[in-house]
Write a structure and sequence with these properties.
32% of the residues lie in helices and 18% in strands. By secondary structure, it is α/β, with parallel strands linked by helices. The protein has one domain: TIM Barrel. The longest helix has 15 residues.
């Protein structure tokens, strides 16, 4: 059966299920995936964030086994590893636990890919890590697409990473300190680097709509991708919850953040909701939505899987 909906390259969990949870169970994964598919996520990359190796050693094989089931095989295109090769400095680390971060290590990456049965398809790394270039080269040899993020990289760092094989920027505009240099910073340098496509969390909270518009004008629709960055609290009611080793506050308007630091902790939306929000805020047409949330993310992974579009209501909302 042809998948129907949108493609999401960054899904951390759904309705209380955290794919990075050390206590993750088969039933929890199945429930989350069924819920995401029912909500219009046609194809996804379940995402595991920075964690201890024991979490990778248990969760990646579990996800790989379940992804091979006939029910989920058409929908799970692989996994996104966001970390542990990120910048531990405040702001760049975001909601990730810096004590679990690792230096760029091609051999450790090979071990993680072994846990996943070869199913890691996307890797987010910090472009300012020492020895990151050999790891990017090794990742590409292993068939892993490399995206850059959670870093304080310079323009030169980005250039070197692109030359090594990096092709994207993870949630551009996020994973940064509140204050950065006004002319030289990873956001502006990322916009200027033509070799990198931009992934954007278009939920109205991660970045202002003016910045989303600027990214689309700079990169063009053809080099931009919408992602949900759905957290384990996506689809939950407003409240305070334990999440990623801290307390996360989900407000009635959908903002999800750490009340102590003010930093966001992923999104409370699915990719369908992100597409609807972006379409409304920027008055996008169907062709742009199709490119941003189906064609472009599949192309980044080297896939051409046919995906059927969701029906729309009278006001144009994808149902």
């Amino acid at each position: 059966m042809q998948p129907c909906g949108f493609v999401d390259l960054q899904v951390n969990g759904y309705r209380g299920v955290d794919f990075s949870d050390p206590q993750l169970s088969d039933d929890a994964v199945v429930t989350a995936w069924r819920g995401l598919i029912a909500d219009g996520t046609a194809i996804m990359l379940p995402t595991i964030i920075t964690a201890e190796e024991r979490v990778y050693a248990t969760n990646l094989p579990r996800l790989a086994r379940l992804a091979a089931l006939p029910e989920f095989a058409p929908h799970i295109a692989g996994f996104h590893l966001e970390g542990p090769f990120l910048c531990p400095r405040d702001g760049a680390a975001g909601a990730h636990n810096s004590s679990w971060m690792k230096a760029a290590d091609p051999l450790y990456l090979e071990r993680l890919q072994g846990y996943a049965g070869g199913r890691i398809r996307l890797l987010t790394v910090a472009a300012d890590l020492s020895n990151v270039v050999p790891m990017i080269v090794q990742a590409r040899r292993m068939g892993i697409v490399v995206s850059l993020g959670h870093h304080l990289a310079t323009a030169a760092d980005l250039t070197h990473a692109v030359a090594a094989g990096a092709t994207a920027l993870t949630h551009l505009g996020n994973g940064l300190p509140h204050l950065v240099g006004r002319h030289h910073n990873p956001l502006l340098d990322g916009l200027a680097e033509d070799g990198l496509q931009a992934m954007i969390v278009g939920d109205g909270h991660h970045v202002p709509w003016s910045l989303v518009r600027t990214i689309l004008r700079s990169k063009g629709v053809a080099r931009s991708i919408l992602v949900s960055d759905a957290s384990p609290l996506a689809g939950m009611p407003a409240a305070d919850y334990p999440c990623f080793g801290a307390i996360a506050r989900l407000t009635a308007d959908g903002r999800l953040f750490n009340p102590e630091t003010g930093y966001l902790m992923g999104s409370s939306n699915t990719i369908r909701q992100v597409v609807n929000a972006t379409r409304t805020a920027l008055q996008l047409d169907d062709a742009s939505c199709l490119a941003l949330a189906v064609t472009n993310p599949l192309a980044l992974l080297g896939l051409t899987t046919p995906v059927a579009m969701l029906p729309r209501s009278a006001d144009g909302t994808y149902l």
